[in-house]
Amino acid sequence: MKNIQFPKRTYSEWQHAAVKAIKGKPFEKTLKTSTIEDITLEPLYTKNMLDQLGSYVPAQVGAIQHGKYQPSWLVAQEVMAESAEQYLTLVKDDILRGNETVVYTGFGKFDWTDEQLSELAELIIEKPLYFKLTSDDQDILRVFDFVAPEQLAHVQGVVFSEEAVKAPENVRTQLVDTIPIHHAGGTAVHELGVALSILSERMAESDFSETAKNTWIRFAVDTQFFQEIAKLRAFRVLWQAFSSAFGEEAPMIPLFTETSVRSYSKLDPYVNLLRAGNSTFAAVLGGTDAHTVHPHDFLTKPDLSSRRIARNVQLVIKEEAHVSHVVDPSAGSYFVETLTKEYVEAGWNYFLEIEQAGGYSEVIKSGWLTDDIQAKWVDRENNTATRQQSLIGTNIYANPQEPVRDSKIGDSHLEYMTAKRLATPFENLRAQSKVVNLKSAIILLEPVKNIKAQVDFVSGFLAVGGIEPLVSSHLATAKEINQFLANEAIDYGVLCGSKEAVEAVVTGLDTKASIDLAGRYPKEQLSEWAQFGINETLYSGKHMTTKLDKILALGKEAF
């Protein structure tokens, strides 16, 4: 095998073969993909493409590796508790089971005793802390008073607080938070540009070195795997460029990440495990310093089991993938390096746009940023509604019999209550289907073996809205169809069959039911058939939420 050599091929040869494989379809439209940020993803990345970037790539890799504290990252899983006593018990247990950070989220105002704070002080001497506090939950900060002066140098970590706080020297308290932008529907470019703009405002008001020394940043990581890797890497490059603009050497800034809830769904929640694994691995390859995995049932009510599984997502990656031994695992990848550069350029240009519009505070006040983010969110929703983006178990491969779970996000996670999620419209449809009495049917104009793909598509389309249609036997004539619809008291039906089979029966339809066709038909044809009760068509690429909402409106309210 060592003597076997594969023939070398050029990009043009590969492109020629690719065009042949897609049978004459346009190469650009078929094989190139545009991201939500309007960045084009190539079907193939080569060494030549990377070589064209010249000395930029080594400089880019150097900036990324210089900004990373260590090859590994901290497992920073949240601990859910109802009292200070319970919190201490759980956090100690979590540390024994692999958690590497003392994470405290504002659960409500706990009454901390001196003894409990003394116990907590012992923990934060040994492990980095990650405190997320609300304005009425600051009492935990008294823990620093219980750390011996000679031990204060060992206390390190970050504090996220709505109010200014005093903390030991190695605890950073100034957060650059891009997660609100992410929750509002922002893209990776929005997040990068906003991060720089926030930093710009802060640095203009204070000493650069002192502010940088007290600053940390937080990103949410979604399921667009390679884009999210490139986003995190791009920030480190942008931070170096930003520091250079101030005439300063770029100090290291801790980069904290968490799994995005944007793609999480209450429907088929175990799929959230796959989403969590995807985004966590992206965060790791992108160079996170500390990461939090939200449990798969985060939107309803996490329990000890789901929290353990979430923690193990990170532990499995650490133990099995060995990426914790490498500072920048994705360095040198033709795809990732090229994509990182494109996000660097797009993020910097967006930062300049914000600055020209008056800076971060001004674009928030004027609504300029909100409008820009909303436009991209509408694009995301449309992509999901037309299945250009799949949410397994939600907009595709849905189980209509699955119960719709109520959201039970607690007070400690209020920031997620308003987070925009792609699954929300589909969850609303499923909830609506549970209170509507709709009798629906798939009408077979040919034997099912001849049209199975069509029947499966229609069944899957309706299942997304929680609709379980009755499937008829083979009905070859309009009379048989009319009789079936009347006998079964059908409110909504879909005719499945070839165009010839449809043409043979459509002019004889006489029913009160609303009828659609499976497949694409010319508008002129549908307009002509409207007099026989034909309304619309179901086909791949149709806007699902709009259509399913119309279908469910045909039903009667169930009591």
How would you characterize this protein structure?
α17 links the parallel β13 and β14 (about 470-475). The longest helix is centred in the middle third of the chain and has 23 residues, at about 335-355. α10 (about 225-245) packs across α13 (about 335-355). Helix content is about 45%, strand content about 15%. The radius of gyration is 28 Å and the shape is globular. It is built from 21 helices and 18 strands. A five-stranded parallel beta sheet has the order 3-11-10-9-8. Strands 14-13-15-16-17 form a five-stranded parallel beta sheet, sandwiched between helices. It is an alpha/beta fold and about 550 residues long. Pfam families: MM_CoA_mutase. InterPro entries: Cbl-dep_enz_cat (IPR016176), MeMalonylCoA_mutase_a/b_cat (IPR006099). This is Methylmalonyl-CoA mutase.
What multimeric state do the chains show?
single chain
| Spatial shape | globular
Low-pLDDT sequence parts = none
Number of beta-strand segments? 18
Task: Please count the helical segments.
Answer: 21
Helix content: 40-55%
The biggest sheet, with number of strands, parallel, antiparallel or mixed sense and barrel status, is: 5 strands, parallel
- Quickly give the structural class: alpha/beta
Strand order of the largest sheet: 3-11-10-9-8
First-to-last CA distance: 72 Å
Strand content: 5-15%
Radius of gyration from CA coordinates: 28 Å
Task: Round the mean pLDDT to the nearest integer and report it.
Answer: 94
